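In this section we walk through a basic example: taking a raw amino acid sequence and producing a predicted 3D structure, encoded as discrete structure tokens. The instruction is simple. Fold the sequence below.
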Amino acid sequence: MDSFEINKIVAAVLMVALLIIGIGKLSNVIFHVEKPKTPGYAVEVEQATKVSSSTEKVVEEKVDIASLMAMGDIALGEKVFKKCAACHSIVKGGKNNIGPALYNVVGRKIGAVTDYKYSKALSSYDKEWTFEELNGYLTKPAKWIKGTKMAFAGLRKEKDRASVIKYLNQNSDSPVTLP
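The resulting token sequence is shown next.
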């Protein structure tokens, strides 16, 4: 290869580079876009005012538990409970796993299984597992009782929750009468 051939190759490479740069500059002139002074979009957010007082009451959404429980089906509850069975046992005399045993859970005081280490949030939650409490907790445990260590996303479908609650109620020495 002689020097004339090398000059042609170098000139071709330089022409391509100049062509790419020139097309970029030309397109900026043709398609000029004015950039905003501050990038992004303005998002309007309502300012929430929080009143803190010692007599602040938690407003809970009231659910018609009787109609909710009417939706439930024990066979479906047993099927849906398989999600829970990875961490909880439901048999009489069953041992605690990652979560406490759930036999006789309906009507039991929250955090009452003696040989299970509950989170501080559940230990100090001074209520019983009623149909309403179970419904709220199974909707989204971390939201219902803040600080619980139960890492379950919850059951969105009302029929699934009602079915699981009926199944839990059935697995008891003395099932609570349905509302």
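Looking at the output, two observations stand out. Confidence is low (pLDDT under 50) at residues 53-60. The CA atoms of residues 145 and 159 lie 22 Å apart. In the next section we compare this with other chains.
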